[in-house]
Amino acid sequence: MTDDLPSKSQRKRDMHALQDLGTELVELNDDQLATVELPENLRDAVMQARQMTRLDEARRRQMQYIGKLMRHLDPEPIRASIDAYKAVSQAQTARLHMLELWRTRLLEEDDTLTELVSAYPQIDVAQTRLLIRNAARERAAGQPPKSFRALFKLLNETIRPDHDDE
What we know:
It is built from eight helices and no strands. It is mainly alpha-helical.
């Protein structure tokens, strides 16, 4: 008996990992999927799985089939592409959280505007002050958060990803 072969349990784990990777492929949007280098038969199987909207037995079998097709190719380039899309998504989420934090601090802490102006001198100070005042007034009166949203939009336009280091 040779010890070079992986155990049955390890082979099953590997197959499930490929099937999970196939599931991630199916969940990509059209633009992302178009950039991933896939053999034609795998791309067709992914497209068929995307058309199956119900989570039933047919979709489960299709995902198994995708996993089976992936056993015959190197999954690392596919995994790298998916990880790159996840990293971009995580960076966008982190940026939105940072903008929300700025907006919350501007409404709750008096010294935050000075800090914001020193970090981002290109911001329109008068407009920011007006939006802060109006957002606080709207919140106190229980009105729709028009200025609250406008403040977020102003921060989003001012604090661009390429300006984060300034």
